[in-house]
Automatic annotation (TrEMBL):
Ranges where the Glycosyltransferase 2-like domain occurs: 7-157
Protein name stated in the entry: Glycosyltransferase
Entries under Pfam families matching the protein: Glycos_transf_2
Top-rank taxon, per record: Bacteria
Naturally occurring in which organism (per UniProt): Pallidibacillus pasinlerensis
């Protein structure tokens, strides 16, 4: 296989506990033509000292003058990248030894694909779990992006030519969900895909800057994700009123215990989505309805309703109702209630 230069970009902030393992998982890749760009965002621990202890010509350390936040830091990584491809890596995760080789091989053989993610293994403060996204093909992911982010950011490798040609970079407003915002921009101009291979171990459950920000600024996070939804819907030409957009954002939320303000408008929103795609044939209609139903299932799980109300709502607004889905709703609902009690 031809081995074009790949930039592995890793933002770093107070990562002394994990940076050694993360960095060595890249240094030990089967793919060797790498530059490893680490951008430190004002760490106050031993992160920089640990990085400087490595003597490998492929490592390049860039340091922000002060803590600037993750979107700014990610844009520094984009600016510094010299490779044909940009492989994203977080400073607390672990890449499988063949991650870069497998993704670059795929991108080289499929020049129409602009970014590729992978399956991943969740580990850390939780039991190890293999995560296999149900949807992985370009059309499927583009539909999913209307509702939720289906791509694990540190599992992704991006074609730099696409980013440069379309002037795509991270939006500084997005202190969270900056990856979701970037995937939407890429999906507008290109194709995203997920390789059905476990190429990353994603650390989950430990305390980090994202979680702290998430707790402190939950409402701002919801507004930012609302902006992403609205941007994608406008691009696709889905015509919602302001009230319908508000309900759309309230309904398709990541936050458990959310309360949609108008259940009647939820029906209107879902009906409009179905009619829009049927009329425009933007996506294969059967595929669109299937993914919509899955996203409705997830959205209902997050709502502040009783188990009975959730099942009733699901019956009313889905296209392909199945008994197993009702069971899933109830199991998730009562599992979450038990967790709160415990």
């Amino acid at each position: 296989m031809n081995e074009p230069l790949v930039t592995v970009f890793m933002p770093v902030y107070n990562s002394e506990q994990y940076i050694k393992e993360a960095l060595e998982s890249i240094l030990n890749q089967t793919y060797k033509n790498l530059e490893i760009v680490l951008v430190d965002d004002g760490s106050t621990d031993r992160s920089v000292e640990i990085i400087k202890s490595y003597h490998d010509d492929r490592i390049r350390l860039v340091q922000n003058e002060k803590n600037m936040g993750i979107p700014y830091t990610r844009n520094v990584g984009l600016k510094e990248a010299k490779g044909k491809y940009l492989a994203i890596m977080d400073s607390d995760d672990i890449a499988m030894p063949n991650r870069i080789e497998r993704q670059i091989d795929y991108l080289e053989k499929n020049p129409d694909i602009d970014a590729v993610g992978s399956y991943y293994i969740q580990f850390g403060d939780v039991a190890e779990k293999k995560v296999t996204p149900k949807y992985s093909k370009p059309e499927e992911l583009k539909i999913m992006l209307m509702f939720y982010n289906p791509i694990a950011n540190p599992s992704a490798t991006i074609r730099m030519e696409t980013l440069e040609k379309h002037h795509i970079k991270y939006n500084l407003d997005f202190f969270v969900a900056q990856d979701y915002q970037l995937w939407v921009q890429l999906a507008k101009v290109g194709k995203l895909e997920i390789l059905p291979e476990f190429l990353l171990k994603y650390r989950f459950g430990h305390e980090n800057i994202s979680k702290k920000s998430n707790r402190e600024k939950r409402e701002k996070r919801k507004r930012l994700i609302g902006r992403i939804h609205e941007d994608m819907l406008e691009f696709l030409g889905v015509g919602f009123t302001k009230e319908e957009l508000n309900v759309y954002n309230e309904f398709f939320t990541e936050s458990y215990g959310s309360a949609v303000s108008n259940i009647t408008t939820v029906h209107t929103v879902i009906d409009k989505l179905k009619k829009w795609n049927k009329d425009t044939q933007t996506f294969d209609h059967d595929l669109f309805l299937s993914i919509l139903d899955d996203c409705i299932l997830l959205a209902i799980y997050h709502q502040s309703l009783t188990g009975k109300e959730k099942v009733a709502l699901y019956k009313q607004i889905t296209s392909n109702r199945q008994a197993k889905d009702y069971v899933i709703i109830l199991l998730k609902h009562y599992y979450h209630k038990m967790k709160k009690v415990i």
